[in-house]
Amino acid sequence: MPSLLWETPADEKNADLSPDGKWIAYGSDRTGRFEVWVQPFPVVADEGRQVSFDGGRWPLWNPADGHELFYATPEGMMAVAVETEPTFQRGQTVRLFSTAEYGPPSGNRRIDISPDGTRFLMFKAAPATEAPRPILVQNFFAELPAECDYQGQAPHMKHKRDCEPCTGRAPAARR
Questions:
Q1: Is this structure's pTM higher than 0.70?
Q2: How far is CA 40 from the centre of its chain?
């Protein structure tokens, strides 16, 4: 059952758990603009520690080792070295690349990171001259192979990964 970790008057969102599960990074506007913060997890016992100081959104832990935190600013994608033991300490912030072509960071997270922490997936902003175009995919289930055993339920990632007719290979359990 979901439970409330903490409640503040600030707008706090886009949380990401550290790979060891002991820290939670999130964006908060408690200072008057969005910044990146971290708190111990699962027992949230303090006000947290501020990570960004010139604006920051969409924090992501480096999944490879948990000793780096990434976040977006209007100036670019940032990386900050962090230590979480025995207490949280932040290192120097480094700008990795420009995010100008992806639009200013706002709202909900529009980025993700590869499991090895070496690549980012980001949504590119549409040119202002183009009107947004919705794309409607009809008959999605009809595109699946006839032998697919999804049995009328929406296929999910595990299904797609393990379904022999969809992938062309035997499920992991039968290899």
A1: no
A2: 18
